[in-house]
Amino acid sequence: MPQRAATVVGGGIGGLAAAIALHRRGWRVEVLERAPEFTEIGAGISLWPNALHALDVLGLAGTVRALGAVEATGGVRDRRGRWLSRTDNAELTRRFGHPLVVLHRADLLRALTEALPADSLRPGSEVSAVRDDGHRLVVEHRGGESRPELVVGADGLRSAVRRALWPDAAGPRYAGYTAWRMVTGPLAAPPSEGAATWGRGERFGYTALPGGRMYCFATASLPAGGASGSSGSSEYAELLRRFGSWPDPVPALLAAVPADAVLRHDLYDLPPLPSFVRGRAALLGDAAHAMTPNLGQGACQALEDAVTLAHCLDGTPDVAAALRSYDLLRRPRTQAVTRRSARLGAVGQLSWPPAVLLRDMAARLTPTRATLRSMTPVLGWTAPGDRGTG
């Protein structure tokens, strides 16, 4: 029986994870990445228990945990630095089987690429067209063209695969706020716990990375278009202006950030698609369900997508039927998580003083156990084939 072939468009977290899952089930996989190399720059990433479970299915959970830091406690503070809520990571592990792990995105990408044969990775292969010739999907790219049995669109928010095969789908929608991401240099005494501080139309968060570094992120409600992937000292100056007088340890963290290492991006999510599949093509990750980062679930949901897709394709020659099963499993869940993340972002970005006061009071009065229980539908996911699949 000839080896089945798949083309994965996009070499980010979701695309590489899907390629690994398919490769381990005997597929011949190529990963087309438009950038000249497979890497990520500039920021950390939080992997919640559901993501670690997906990585466990891929045989990579131990490797990834060793690259990251496990945060002992974290929570939300108000603009004066007072705790509104706190979460014990040990309780996350007890409830969901894995902790919250934070690592640099570049380290995660490296672990994923090392799990694939080198000849399956095709950097510098920007896709110019995806079309159906009546027999197979044809993917035209800088290196030529591919005619695989399966096409996986994992090429992000502005997916070329989605534009080609879902031409009537609505484009990304601006969330109403922009974000800065940065990593500090090593700190002599890094904060012992992470936190997100909620202000009025602004937020600042931080969490530990290995080696005494901290991953920091900030948001502000601003019109779209002020920053399209911009970076550098002007963004650092803007951060100092907005957050330099916030409660400790925010000023010290900003002082430890290299001025040219700040990334800024406007935040978008994707309106719900009627289907993640079309014939023998499937979307996953941001290409299917881009979401705001308020729940830290973008990459986590992409990892879930990857192992679910491979499971649905396992043991059946009918690719189109397998993809319909994938769509039924993934679309309702990911679109629900997208909506939930958008709601949390709207709450976090409140700026009217009476609304901010009520928000902070509600957060302070909500028991920790209720917060954890509310996260169970997101964090309690199990892979298809496991008892209790979510």
Topology:
Blueprint: E1 5-9, H1 13-23, E2 28-33, E3 44-47, H2 49-57, H3 61-67, E4 69-70, E5 73-77, E6 83-88, H4 89-96, E7 101-104, H5 105-114, E8 121-123, E9 127-132, E10 137-141, E11 144-146, E12 150-153, H6 160-165, E13 173-183, E14 195-198, E15 202-208, E16 214-220, E17 228-231, H7 233-243, H8 250-255, E18 263-269, E19 277-278, E20 281-283, H9 286-289, H10 298-313, H11 319-348, H12 353-365, H13 368-379
Parallel strand pairs: 1-2, 1-12, 2-8, 5-14, 12-20
Antiparallel strand pairs: 3-7, 4-7, 5-6, 9-10, 10-11, 13-16, 13-18, 14-15, 15-16, 17-18, 19-20
Helix pairs in contact: 1-5, 1-10, 2-3, 2-10, 10-11
Structural summary, described in words:
The chain has helices at about 15-25, 50-55, 60-65, 90-95, 105-115, 160-165, 235-245, 250-255, 285-290, 300-315, 320-350, 355-365, 370-380, and strands spanning about 5-10, 30-35, 45, 70, 75, 85-90, 100-105, 120-125, 125-130, 135-140, 145, 150-155, 175-185, 195-200, 200-210, 215-220, 230, 265-270, 275-280, 280-285. It is an alpha+beta fold and about 400 residues long. The two termini are about 35 Å apart. The model has no long low-confidence stretch (mean pLDDT about 95). The strands form four sheets. It has an eight-stranded mixed sheet with strand order 6-5-14-15-16-13-18-17, with helices on both faces. Strand 9 and strand 10 (about 135-140) form a beta hairpin. It has one domain: FAD/NAD(P)-binding domain (3-Layer(bba) Sandwich), CATH 3.50.50.60. The protein has 13 helices and 20 strands. InterPro entries: FAD-bd, FAD-dep_Monooxygenase_BioMet, FAD/NAD-bd_sf.
